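The records we work with from here on pair a chain with its fold. Taken together, the tokens spell out the fold as the letters spell out the chain. To see the layout at work, look at the sequence and tokens printed below.
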Amino acid sequence: MKRATTLAEIKRSLNPKPLKLEELDEFFVETSDVRDPQLSRRDAIYDRLDVEPNAKVLLAGHAGSGKSTELVKFQAEHADRYVFVRLSMIEDGEAGNASVEALLVLIVEAVLREMGARDVRLSEKTLTSIHGWFDETFQVKQEELEYTGSVGGGIDSASGFWGKLLGVTAYLKADIKTGSGLLSKTITRENKRLPQLAHQCGLLIKEAQLALRQGSQELLLILEDLDKVTVGEADDIFIENPAALANLPAKAIFTAPISLFCNPRAAVLDPHFVVETLPMIKVDDQQGKPYKAGRSVIEHILSQRVDLEAAVERRALVLAIEKTGGVLRHLFLVLQQAAAAASQAIRRGKREKERITEADVRYGLNRLKSDLLRRIGVMGLPKEFEGISTDDLYQRLKELVGKPQRVPADNVNLLLLQSHALVEYNGEQWHRVHPLVAEHIEMLTGS
């Protein structure tokens, strides 16, 4: 990634994916003070992990609030103490096929791969035992493994129990991504194989911990994109079956959806996890007045990625920041759409200056607004939301628009939070209707 100076470069520079380790020095902007001036969430997470052996942290926050980038920064700050094993439910698995058993398999695969990349040798006896369980349980045929082939890192899936085990888990990883069902059919609650799978995962982690501690480091798991799974999947992973992940013999950070904590059974989490929320960056305060510090930091984030003076008119920039409500992902997407609209206007000879205008931003905002409004509905929801209508959602929005406040954790507000129609500013625990959704509600009510 490089800083954009032209419209064509904006799509790449405003990619909403988190920064990579090697990009931090050039592009990272510290946001802790405007999120919560009393306590940096990265410091809070470090303290939690430091105090409790094998602590499990749930890092909550809206999609697009910057959780993943904060975790990359955390990794850079503590690389001397921890060996990080990172995996993503989207990149390594499938967000629509998330389950405890899938996560455990992905953890085994990721630990094996990370230890192999670092040339950390593990006990062949332990690997043989773990492979024996996987081989007996899943009975993956050799010809099926051949499709996996070489599993990378100089490890051949046909030689040594390290390679054999990595070959099996790589095959299961592909099964998770495609949803073909081998894992879900084999590991069921009825046959009680889930505790066995958790045990095998724990054995591998213990072996990795023993090896790493010889170099005065320890393993730390980071499981990302669990904030993007469905309500039912999050409930199943963290509330119905919390012990499988909570009892793993390693410290871990899991991203988690805000909606998880609106669940009336969320108290089940307390014995197993510690919760940290990443506050959204406010663009307005609770009285509805512009929050200059927050807007300034957001502009700084953009200026690291885009030459704003050259590429964006000032009024257009202010409008984009104001109307996306501090949701960085939304802001990036709006400016990408605006850049595309501006480029097309130039190609068609409608303008000469290569710069995003207020009209371009308005186009991007309208596209985002349409996406947000499409999500406000009840089609296909789980049984626990039965009895709630789309009219109920809109009625609640009408009650809340223009009145930033802390809202009760009921199912209507849970659905609005999930759809981004309602945004939570976690540092001070208050909510507001997303500015673009508020526009639509105000139009409907004529206010």
In short: The chain has a mean pLDDT of 89. Residues 193-213 form the longest helix (21 residues). The chain is about 50% helix and 10% strand. Strands lie at 56-60, 82-88, 218-224, 251-256, 274-277, 422-425, 430-433.
